[in-house]
């Protein structure tokens, strides 16, 4: 009776599979974190590029006399949101778990010794919300992920007309 037990403890033929089974859950968690981090970085960079494009558009589309005439940028928010939320073909570059929840624009008038007198600076702010599709897998490992909300802002001098 003692001989089979000793041979069982000395047997090493399945050691690699057991080690793999022990490491696999942690490997999957790290893989999930890498995928989520990559998606988060890509979505943030896409939002930054969209906000920069929208700010450039607003700074060139607004009349240069917007400060002296008291114009508001609120009428432009719908178009700016479209610029940020869609690509050139009109499709959304974001996955379903990433959304632009709010787009706001603002015009700040600055006085100084500038050519043309009063200078307008257009700002665009987009609020980005990301929810994690692989959050369930991360929660299996004991972590928790709520959605992340952040804002991206860019400013440019009003240059048109």
From TrEMBL:
TadE-like domain residues: 14-56
InterPro entries referenced in this protein's UniProt entry, alphabetically: TadE-like_dom (IPR012495)
The entry's keywords: Membrane, Transmembrane, Transmembrane helix
Transmembrane regions listed in the UniProt entry: 15-35
Full protein name: Flp pilus assembly protein TadG
Organism for this UniProt entry: Roseovarius lutimaris
